[in-house]
Amino acid sequence: MGRLLDSLKRGFRSFDKGMREDATSLIRKQLDEEESVFALLTMGAFSGLPSPPTGVLLRILPHMSREISVMNKRSAGLDDVFSQTLGTFDID
Amino acid sequence: MTALIVLFAAAFYIFFYFTYGKALERNVVRADGARPTPAYTCRDNCDYVPANKFVLFGHHFASIAGAGPIVGPAIAVVWGWLPALLWVWFGNLFIGSIHDYLSLMASVRYDGKSIQYVSGELMGKSSKYIFEVYIYFTMILIVAAFMGTYGALASKSPEILTASVLFMVAAVVEGQLLYKTKLPFWLSSVIGVVLTIGAIVVGFVWPFIKCPNIQLLYMFQVIYIILAAALPVWFLLQPRDYLNSYILWGGIIIATTAAVFAFRGFNWPAYTSFAARVISGQPSPFWPTVPLVIACGALSGFHSIVGSGTTSKQLDNELSGLFVGYGAMFMEGMLSTIVITSIGAFGFTVFQGVADKITAAGFDLAKMQTDAAYFGQVGAEVINSTDIGIGGALGIFTKSFGQMLNVIKVPVKLGTTLGGLWASAFVLTTLDTTNRLARYAFQELVEPIKKVSKGLHAVLADRWVASIFAACLGWFLIAKGGNAYTALWAGFAGANQLLASIAMLTAATWVKKVQKVGGGMLAAVLIPTFVLWTTVFVALVWFLFVIVPVTAAALRVILGGFVILMLVLDIWLMYNFFKSWNEGKQNKA
Fold this sequence. Notes:
The complex is a heterodimer. Helices cover 71% and strands 0% of the residues of chain A. By secondary structure, chain A is mostly helical. Chain A has one domain. The longest helix of chain A has 23 residues, at 2-24. Chain A starts with a helix and ends with a helix. The mean pLDDT of chain A is 78. By secondary structure, chain B is mainly alpha-helical. Chain B has one domain (2-156, 212-583): Amino acid/polyamine transporter I (Up-down Bundle). Chain B has 25 helices and two strands. Chain B has a two-stranded antiparallel sheet with strand order 1-2. In chain B, a hairpin with a 2-residue loop joins strand 1 (277-279) and strand 2. The termini of chain B are far apart. The model of chain B has no long low-confidence stretch (mean pLDDT 86). The chains are: A mainly alpha, B mainly alpha.
């Protein structure tokens, strides 16, 4: 009986998690965009933008390893975004 | 009979999941639980993030299960319920589920890249471009075909029109609750579900929105999809998709329960005729035209894009791939099985409800019941006749669904409205997301024009121009096509199945060249690939010579042009496939 209740609880938790995912998956794309804007603001000097000043960039650089690696991967996959967009929207 | 079919289907899918599916996992994909997936190797906590396999299954299934698995089987039953059911089961088992699973796993092995990218890597860059052209044409045809199916249903059913408009309002309210208030998630969800139920009940009790003019409905749909595609996603699209998932799961649970407890024999003919008049009133031979009718329940090319677009980036373990990719496709087969079961058992009850109109339209209802061949000749005409008013393929499904729910004491009209909202919510969702995506695809396709003329490119790539172009082209096809949604549906399904055949060719190349699989297991991938390619190719040639000439003059040039272009690209793709089979690149994956 206890085991059955545990499985039911687990099942309900998965359902709840899935529903939360369903309710927010599309606006996660917004987070994507905001991260790109953040990267541009903080690492613009790498692409020739004069903001922020190079000195500031160098000081924050040690804290930016995750962002650099994520942006690197994203820019490598920029020619392959369509299917991700299509997968994000429900279409069938 | 209803219980027998549903239980047999469940047993069929479970049996083959644990035998055939596991063999594919072991011998073709060689899934390794210890090999890290892109969700870990490329983790960014945004696109690449490991998800619990049950959560991912739900999400993937909700993404692939739309109106497709409902509409296709509801058109195909004119051949009889048995051929439709057999194609759903065996097409799903031998082609659809392999297609979905291999696309997902090939993408996983290529760092979560899309199946177009993988096809470009394995079969040359032109394959990737061909893929994108297909996607665009498929989307235009989806807009046209879905506008037609919804128009046929809503013009005949104020209940469903009212419920689906109110559902949109409920979705906007839900969006505000979820994102603009600080209400707990569970409370917003409860309010959203109550509003959805309210939309169904109001539609049933007080169907105050009526629009018998189908052309006017098309125009409203065009305005709606252009506006909806321009609104922020949190405002309508996201909350509506979220509420849709409740309708989907609720609908499946209620329908399965009703089917199991209905204990009703089938009154629909098991088999009518090999060449029943299914598409545009023309004799349509079951082979090769069945994939032009049943798309998503048995196989859909879009699944490969969804699987390789988002799901592959969230798979937590290679061993979860079978459950998510293969299992979700089986679940979709179950959904189509339920659709066929409800029509098979209650379709004639629906006809009896409009017996006088059927007789007035010049059809013989008694003969339809006793003479299967006669039914094969007139069945589609009866279902689609505006004078009889069944409401087309969606109409026969929703009305049969209402009758089936009556078995568990749900009033017929309420059940019909629920079924109608289930189907129409997915149709409308698909319509506006397709229009949004067609806009993106169009912008991507006109990119090369930038080098020739920046001004022209700026005009074509403008978001309003790109959005209005896709919507209006779809509108033109259905409005000028004389409401012939079955022809447009066949065109959409054909393009969709060609997409699937490209994905299968890609998967077969991957299996042979990268996975180095040989013998029987290679045949298990190659045979369905060639069967599918040949079937869809021959079907589209048939479509070009039989259906296109009988469509309205305005439609002939565009639809014929689409089909010819697809056929040419398909041959080109096959050339790429054979060229790369022995000498293509070997990939790191």
